[in-house]
Amino acid sequence: MNSILFLKQTDFSHSLFPEQLESAFSKKIVTDDIQQTEEYIDVEQFDCIATEANSISGELKQFFLRTAQKTNSALLLLADSAEKNDVMELSKAGVIVFTSPIKVDDVEKALIVFAANKRRILTVETQLSAERATIEEERLITRAKTVLGRYLNMTEQQAHRYIEKQAMDRCTTRREIALGIIKTYA
């Protein structure tokens, strides 16, 4: 993970956020205000958004619920104390909540699992995007075949051959040929 946005909400001298984890991020921005933190989130993507707080206030809980809806960053909340209902609600929204005593190993493991899941999701999203592009191309080609059949009385097989041959002759994609056919006749 490269970047972390850290919202410090504690008013006591010791930090709940372990320094070993803080040093794991090459880019760190530290804020002490929820509004300022939200402004950063609106303009920049972070790998992790972490907060330390004495307890989970209503304002802090709402901040995390809003943030969970608009970002795919790891959301980490380190609290000295927390109500079980708040922890459950935030966990359901995808926020990783730790309460004191916080073990550095547990937080590190959570971030490693998050990073692995994020990589896996990105791989699946890339594959899904490629599949959607293929399906869209096939729909476009099918529509172009229908247009050729309607306006030039071609069979589906003739229209298919025509699109394939045009793509080879013009050194372009079947998609471009299909778009040209649809623009011309439809």
Structure description:
- This protein is of the alpha/beta class and 186 residues long.
- It is 60% helix and 16% strand.
- The chain has seven helices and five strands; from the N terminus they run βαβαβαβαβααα.
- Helix 5 crosses helix 6 (156-169), helix 5 (104-152) crosses helix 7 and helix 6 (156-169) crosses helix 7 (174-185).
- The chain is elongated, with a radius of gyration of 26 Å.
- It starts with a strand and ends with a helix.
- The model has no long low-confidence stretch (mean pLDDT 87).
Summarize the SSE layout with pairings.
Layout: E1 3-9, H1 19-22, E2 27-31, H2 34-43, E3 48-53, H3 58-70, E4 74-79, H4 84-92, E5 95-99, H5 104-152, H6 156-169, H7 174-185
Parallel strand pairs: 1-2, 1-3, 3-4, 4-5
Helix pairs in contact: 5-6, 5-7, 6-7
Comma- or semicolon-separated keywords:
single chain; 186 residues; alpha/beta; five-stranded parallel β-sheet; 7 helices; elongated
Can you summarize this structure?
This protein has helices spanning 19-22, 34-43, 58-70, 84-92, 104-152, 156-169, 174-185, and strands at residues 3-9, 27-31, 48-53, 74-79, 95-99.
Counting DSSP H or I runs of 4 or more residues, the number of helices is: 7
Q: Strand share of the residues?
A: 15-25%
- Cα-to-Cα separation, first versus last residue: 50 Å
What is the spatial order of strands in the main beta sheet? 2-1-3-4-5
Helix fraction bin:
55-70%
Indicate the low-confidence ranges by residue numbers: none
Counting DSSP E segments of at least 2 residues, the number of strands comes to 5
What string gives the helices and strands in order?
EHEHEHEHEHHH
What is the approximate shape? elongated
Average pLDDT number: 87
Helix/strand-derived class?
alpha/beta
Q: Biggest sheet, in brief? A: 5 strands, parallel
- The Cα radius of gyration reads 26 Å
